[in-house]
Amino acid sequence: MKLSRRQFNLGSTASFASAITSSFHSNSTCCAQNASSKTTGKSSVPTHRDTFALIKSAGKIPVIFDTDIGGDIDDTWALLYLLKCPELDLKLLATDARLGDYRTSLAAKFLTEVGRQDVPLAISVGRRDGKGNQQDWVGDYHYSSYEGPISEDAADAIIRTIKTSPVPVTLICVGAVPNISEALRRDPSICKNARFVGMHGAIHVGYGGHLPVVPEANVRNGIEPLRDTFAADWECSITPLDTCGIVNLDGDRYRTIYNSPARGIKELMANYRAWLTRVRWLNAKPNPTTKSTTLFDLVAVTMAYSEDFMEMETLSLSINDTGVTLINEVDGHDVRCAMRWKNLDKYKDHITERLTSNL
Questions:
Q1: How many helices (H) and strands (E) does the chain have?
Q2: In what residue span(s) does the Inosine/uridine-preferring nucleoside hydrolase domain sit (predicted)?
């Protein structure tokens, strides 16, 4: 496909990097080299405290959203939620290695519908064809008509976004992480100016807060890439199923969202309805007028700017060959884990308020 002025291959043009760089320098005032040192055995890298401090010093935390949007519906909820978080500045949205054209077209159409065509998009190297559960909403839209910059190499886009940022970037990863492991392979120095926040794993419980502990889907779909990510020289934080697997909205909270005139809600609900007609793994499909499905990915977005709602523990984790996340004091890597909710109802109130705010 011939590239238009809106689509850029980062290996052959500086346009994408220029857009990223100018975006950073327009609203950032402090330097990444001032980040304090991590004291858990890794070298000096940005911590959650460093990035949270940006809210006061620079106004916003620059983030990359790495997503398998278009599989489960929670990615779409999480994207709208992210856009409505005043603490976060979305510098890049990178799509998963599978169904790349569909996922990127979905993200591009959604961003266009909510008036955020300024967000750069990047497509993972990998299988690009195929359709997904929200295809009926995507229709015949193709990302080639997107007005913002598009990269055909997600790993390179991630590297450039991190390397050109004057302040630490937070990677919010809510799918398998082949883009992240490839970026680390190409340039391990990105760890000096980034931290990782992911929706991955299950420590003590499985889906729905129940036993048994099972291979969580984002881990199972990319075991080696996540091993590489945990082993990298940066701070890793995750929300496992122990916390994110029990978040859903119903009752008054859901009705408030469903009936809200706030920007993006109409598009979100249209996607939800389209998704429900195609999804096959649910035992019972909820009524889209009264209840959400599990909103796993919103928790990772929240952790990019606050950990006030959850209790964090640093655990030494490894991943076995079936994708089970294990506490392993011998061969594991330190990962900060959101293990319990301090007040889940308060958190649900928080995300309801955010989702019904305007962009």
A1: 14, 11
A2: 63-327
Pairing of strands 194-198, 169-173: parallel
pTM score, two decimals? 0.90
- pLDDT of 250 higher than 80: yes
Please tell me whether residue 297 adopts helix, strand or coil conformation: helix
Spatial separation of the C-alpha atoms in residues 108 and 218, rounded to whole Å = 22
pLDDT at 28 over 70: no
pLDDT tens-digit series, residues 71-87: 999 999 999 999 999 99
CATH class of segment(s) 7-355: alpha beta
Rounded to whole angstroms, the Cα distance separating 143 from 113 reads 13
**SS3 of 177, please?**
coil
**What does the radius of gyration of the chain's CA atoms come to, in whole angstroms?**
19
Q: Report the percent of the chain where pLDDT is more than 90.
A: 82
Compute the distance between CA of residue 172 and CA of residue 306 in angstroms, rounded to an integer.
Answer: 13
User: Could you tell me the residue ranges of all domains in the chain?
Assistant: 7-355
